[in-house]
Amino acid sequence: MAKVTITLDSDLAIEVMLLAGTKSPQDAVELIVRDYLERSHRTEARTGNATDQERLADRRSAPEEGR
Questions:
Q1: Sign of torsion, CA 35 41 45 48?
Q2: What's the predicted TM-score (pTM) here?
Q3: I want to staple 16 with a disulfide (CB 3.0 to 4.6 A). Which of 27, 28, 54, 63 is the partner?
């Protein structure tokens, strides 16, 4: 896998390390990014993805009945 170098503000790196519970900023950022991606995939599985918006657009524009 290719590696990428990213520079972060030291306060941000320390905060990420504390949140992730790691001693290495690289490990902390990797864990948080992986968690973010997993959550995104779980959310898409539950709510659908961007292509579903076209299907749902018709429902939103239709007037609600019973009010």
A1: positive
A2: 0.55
A3: 28
Note whether residue 21 is domain-resident.
Answer: yes
* Contact yes or no for 43/59 (Cβ under 8 A): no
User: How many domains, the chain?
Assistant: 1
Interval 14-33: pLDDT, tens? 998 998 899 999 899 888 88
The DSSP secondary structure of 1-67, one letter per residue, reads: ---------HHHHHHHHHHHT-S-HHHHHHHHHHHHHHHHHHHHHHH--TTHHHHHHHHHHSPPS--
- Is residue 1 a part of any domain in this protein? no
Kindly report, residue by residue over 25-56, the tens digit of the pLDDT.
Answer: 989 988 888 888 888 776 666 666 666 666 65
